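Below is how a single chain appears once it has passed through the pipeline. First comes the sequence as given, then the structure the pipeline wrote out for it. We keep one example in the README because the format questions we get most often are answered faster by looking than by reading.
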Amino acid sequence: MPDAPDVQDLIQRARQGEPAASQALIEHLHPLVRRWVRHHLPRRESEEDLMQEVFMKLFQKLESYRVQPGVPFEHWVSRLTVRTCLDALRAEKVRPEWRWADLNEGEMEWLDFLLNQQAALPSEHAVDAKAVVARLLAQLSPPDRLVLTLLDLEERSTQEISQLTGWTRPMVKMRAMRARHKLRQIARELNMTDL
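Resulting structure:
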């Protein structure tokens, strides 16, 4: 396994316009950026296109990056990536209507389970559970979708979310509470529309 690159040296050389340093920085950051983009990819965006946008912004803003003790450069890149994904999510202004009739049998069972605590846990179809959650999340605003994804699906702390988004911890908690309420309301409305 090759040694980890000296990131600060690469940053300095990339700022001076050295193509090899810029390429080495991209190669070092590529797995991190890909992971973040995959977690926050809008429905209509290509993963590669969004990653390219992140790297373009990274090099545009590289001059403004300042070293902070105890905070790795990768944290700055993570924030930039999350914000780029959030901007792309905001650009998806039209969210298509989703109806009960659009669900397959397994998805209906999972939605019924989510809405009715007494319903039996569906024994199979984890793919259907994931599909229902993804469909419900897609109906939320980008910030609400982001906070629930980070907090509930990725199990990040409110402190981590605060650092990634720039929101205060109380704001993260309040946004998550409201987003969960909206999510339940969307699920209830969906269930009621086709009965």
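The chain has a mean pLDDT of 78.

See the next section for the split statistics.
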